[in-house]
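TL;DR need structure tokens for one chain.
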Amino acid sequence: MFSFVALAIGLAYPQADHPALVMGLGFCLVACVFILGALSIAAYVPELFPTEIRLRGVGLCSTAGRLANIGIPFLIAFLYMQGGITAVLGLISAGLFVQGVVVFVLGVETKGMALEAVSTEPSDIIIHSRVRQSA
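>> reply
TL;DR here they are.
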């Protein structure tokens, strides 16, 4: 949800012309992106891995994110020189859109599920749910 909220704010931000609106939208955009990072790193990603490999899985995801954080500033500087703030926010908005769609389509809903059920293979979850329904 925050990906799509940040996407909408990111698309509105370059259109703002009043200083108060620029500051308000900028604050909301940064807050949404911060919340996305905090929620995904601290809450969602660890639940996607079985207990036996959770530390390695979260470490791998954090490493990929940090490697991206090394290159993104250079890409942003290049885009800003080529197309200004609109190009930069276009990149960020595209990333937020892809992230939101990927989590919506491929994401695992972990709310109310036991950790063992989240860590189980999808085919096993279907089998277990059919067994529970017939029991």
